[in-house]
Design goal:
The chain is of the alpha+beta class and 206 residues long. The chain has 6 helices and 9 strands, in the order ββααβααββαβββαβ. Strand 8, helix 6 and strand 9 form a beta-alpha-beta unit. The mean pLDDT is 90.
């Protein structure tokens, strides 16, 4: 049983400690409330399918790094990721396999970034990330490395064949005078350009 303990000293007339009183409090209710709050926090912050950060948590984190940029001029970059030909996977193999591919892509992305960075599910087959970088070249290097990692990941089908996917990526870096929505729009433009140019590539918009 979880308990909290408080100890109170007992003094004699000479101010010497001659004993103590211990008070035990049942902590089961508080512990249950804590666990319920932790579960609720996970539900609010995590995407239920991929178990990575969800869009709400990304938007919260984005506001934080924007404030850091305004206060300390600490730059950051945004990357948008989209799984190529994802509809074909759902059509050919079913939505359950499609879900497994979403999980694999999510795990491949979040397992290969720094602790200061963040990958979230943006919606559908799209993911979005925040990265602690200073230049477009740095952001491109990160994006291209993640692109290659995802392309080498696979899901083993029932016939022992490996199913693989590629991702297209667009990105942009925060700069003075760029509104938050404009930053996301620029990353989306880069993603569109990567798709238009043949997919499985990276485009950083300056």
């Amino acid at each position: 049983m979880p308990v909290s303990v408080k100890s109170l000293p007992i003094y004699d007339d000479q101010k010497q400690v001659v004993g103590a009183i211990e008070i035990f409090t049942d902590e089961r209710f508080q512990r249950n409330v804590f666990l319920e709050n932790e579960t609720l926090k996970d539900e609010l912050m995590k995407d239920p399918l991929t178990q990575i950060a969800n869009r709400r948590y990304f938007e919260f984190s984005l506001n934080q790094v924007v404030n850091q940029f305004k206060t300390f001029n600490k730059k950051f970059g945004v990357l948008l990721f989209d799984i190529d030909h994802f509809k074909t996977i759902n059509d050919d193999y079913g939505h359950l396999i499609g879900d497994e591919m979403l999980k694999i892509v999510a795990k491949s992305l979040v397992s290969n970034i720094q602790k200061s960075d963040l990958i979230s599910r943006w919606g559908g087959e799209e993911f979005i990330g925040l990265f602690d970088v200073e230049s477009e070249n740095d952001l491109f290097s990160i994006a291209d490395r993640l692109r290659i990692i995802v392309s080498k990941s696979s899901y083993k089908l029932s016939d022992n064949k490996d199913l693989q996917v590629t991702i297209s990526i667009g990105g942009a870096i925060i700069k003075d005078g760029i509104l938050l929505k404009k930053l996301i729009d620029k990353a989306d433009q880069g993603l569109y350009q990567s798709k238009k140019n043949g997919r499985n590539q990276v485009t950083i918009i300056q």
